[in-house]
Amino acid sequence: MRLQLALNVTDLDESIDFYSQLFGEGPSKLKEGYANWSLSEPPLKLVLFERGGREEGDSGHDVNHLGIEVDSADEVIEIEARLSARGLETTGVEDTICCFAGKTETWVVDPDGHRWEVYVKTSDHETQLENVVISSPAPPCCA
């Protein structure tokens, strides 16, 4: 299990350079407007989404979503069941293509509106987003 941090950035190339220096390695996946690292130390999945323009007083950087990457679809199902049993609203478990990857995932939103994705990556894809069910409480990761 490792945490995922997905950030919106204004200049992808600049951010890739910074994070490559910070972690001592380049991204493991690079697409137009998108980069991600699968780091073992620290155990982190870092994802960058390029978003245009800054407004005055805005750093241009914000959290896109947070995530927990697990090893199997069974773990996603177990975690979703635990969250639902405790009264938290989830999106249910879905098989999707999002962020250039096939995934089995569920979403939940914290009290402050931060979106959390619990997922296992099942495959790589050339498209960023397709066939994703947009349902409450959280939109898909790439929206």
Could you explain the architecture of this structure?
This protein has two helices and nine strands; from the N terminus they run βαββββαββββ. The protein is an alpha+beta fold. The chain has a single domain, classed as 2,3-Dihydroxybiphenyl 1,2-Dioxygenase, domain 1 (Roll). It has a nine-stranded mixed sheet with strand order 2-3-4-1-5-8-7-6-9. A hairpin with a 2-residue loop joins β6 (94-98) and β7. The relative contact order is 0.19.
Helix and strand topology:
Layout: E1 2-9, H1 12-23, E2 29-31, E3 34-39, E4 44-50, E5 62-69, H2 73-85, E6 94-98, E7 101-109, E8 115-124, E9 129-130
Features:
143 residues; 2 helices; single chain
Outline of the structure:
The chain has 143 residues and is an alpha+beta fold. The chain has 2 helices and 9 strands; from the N terminus they run βαββββαββββ.
> What is the CATH class designation?
Alpha Beta
The share of residues in helices is 10-25%
Look up the CATH topology. Answer: 2,3-Dihydroxybiphenyl 1,2-Dioxygenase, domain 1
The chain-level structural class is: alpha+beta
Low-confidence sequence ranges: 131-138
